[in-house]
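Predict structure. Input: D-alanine--D-alanine ligase, 309 residues.
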Amino acid sequence: MSSTLSQQFGKVAVMFGGKSAEREVSLNSGQAVLNALVSQGIDAHKFDPKDQPITDLIAGEFDRVFIVLHGRGGEDGSLQGALDLFGIPYTGSGQQGSALAMDKVRSKYLFVGANLSTAPFAVATEGKPFDAEAIMKSLGDKVMVKPANEGSSIGMSQANSAEELEKALENAYQYDHEVLIEQWITGQEVTVSILNGEALPIIEMRTPHQFYDYDAKYKSDSTVYLCPAPLAQELTDKIKHLAVEAFALLGCKGWGRVDLLIDANEQPKLLEVNTVLGMTTTSLVPKAAKAEGISFEQLVVNILRGTLA
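Output follows.
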C-alpha cells in the first residue's frame, strides 16, 4: 500500500508554521500531519513559508501541497491563489471559498442573504463613527466581539456594557480593522466536521470558561468533548444539514468545520466556517473522524486524496 500511495501522490509539501498569529497551533498540527503521511509511505516534506520562499515549491519539484497553515497567509485564500497560478494541487477549499470563510463579516452577510440561521450582529470599522450604546441596546446588552479575519478565538472577548464593548473593540482592532459584534447566545457550543461533502459526527464542547476561547481550545484540561453530541436525532440531522449548506454556500470543498451554537429553543445558529483545521491527534476533526471509525492516518490520506481530483 505504501508504494502505491507514494506513486499516487508523488512529492508532497506539508505547509505549516507561517507568520500568522496562529503559528504555534500550525506547527503542532503540521508536524502531526507530516508524521502521519510519512508513516503511510508517502514522500512528504516539511515546508515552512516563514523560512522558505513559496517558489521553492517549484524548485523542489513538489507535486502537491497539504496546507496546514492556520490564519492569514494560509487560510485566507492568498496561498490558494498563488498555488492556482503555479498549477500545484492543494488540499481543501480554493481561493474564493477560503477567503469568504476566513472573513467572519462577509460570511455572516452570506448566511443572512441565504436565510441560514445565525445570530443578529453588527459591524465596527476602525476609525469610523460607532455608537456603542445603540449597538448594545439593539443586540440585547451582551455581545461577543471578534476580529473579522482571525481564527483560534484570537482577539475575541465578550462585552456586557457599552464601556466593555469599547475596550473589546480596542483589543480586536489590534488584529483587524474590521470587527464583528455578535449577539450573545447562551446555549450549547457544537461543531460539525465536513469531509468530502459529508458531515461527520457532531461534537459538543463544554468548558467552564465564558466561551470556547483560545485557552479552552489549546491549554485547558477542563474542556469536555462529547462525540457524538448527545442530541435528539431530529436536531442532529438539522444541525448537520445546516452545516453542509453553510459550507457549500461559501464555496468551500474537501474538508472543513462549521461551528454553531444551539440556543435555549433548540435552534442552531451558525457562527463560522473554518477551512484549515487543527490536526493534532486531539483536535476536533480527528475526534469526529475517530467516532466515524476513521483513523488519523486514514483521515490525512483521505484529505490529501482530494488533490487528485
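The domain at 120-183 is CATH 3.30.1490.20 (Dna Ligase; domain 1).
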